[in-house]
Amino acid sequence: MYKLMIVDDEKAMCEILAEIIAWKELGVEVVGTCKNGLEAFEKALELRPDILLTDIRMPGMSGIELIQKLTEEGLPTKFILLSAYGEFEYARQAMKYNVRHYLLKPCNEEQIQQAVSEVCSELVRLPMQNPKEKPEKIYSDITKKVLQIVEEELANTELSLKWIAENRLFLNVDYISKKFSTETGQKFSTYLNAFRMDRARELLISPEFTNIYEVADAVGYGNNPQYFSQIFKKVTGLSPTEYRKKLP
Q1: Which residue of 5, 28, 36, 210 has the smallest Cβ count within 10 Å?
Q2: Residue 242 neighbours by CB under 8 Å, 6+ apart
Q3: What does the pLDDT look like over 52-82, one tens digit per residue?
Q4: Are 227 and 219 in contact (CB under 8 A)?
Q5: Where is 242: in which H helix or E strand?
């Protein structure tokens, strides 16, 4: 399971985030909660979490400063920022530390789950490389092929595990599904949705994709760009157009 730390100067918020989310279903374990950046910095160095969910404005050390210091320490931790409206300038500072995941307050349980799922999908694709810290995940040939096919067929509107089983692997879909979820710690549909939203974020900042429908088409929503915009806003709190305007 992936290790998650939660950082928020509101104690009640930390407790709510730790308790209301079905973390185990996401393949995640909450290993610590902290009330400020200074405490979080020390604990993160000790626990070395895979994921850190942090507020931006906190006494002592802000979320941005926390991310900067942990990055400088060489931690490969993935970060999710909690940002209130009007704080996007702070969030933008974190982009140079490769932070692409933001939750705009107030956010709901589903948005939190989706953001964490996206990060988990990145960890699946980019496992830890330092054997002294954490052994690299080893996948079976079948799971590796599924991940590769998702990359190759992302624009395919019919892409699903059933489609992969019938058209590419020619194996029983239930067998593939069980193997994939056991090895990656998440359902294929969760992985695919997170992968698509993550890729959409990347394409929205690319000068090669000037129109939203082009991005929708590239990530598998080509036949329904309006639905893509609805899903994107549900996940990020912003429409694709709003997200693009917020970026530098």
Answers
A1: 210
A2: 233
A3: 999 888 888 888 889 888 888 888 888 988 8
A4: no
A5: helix 240-246
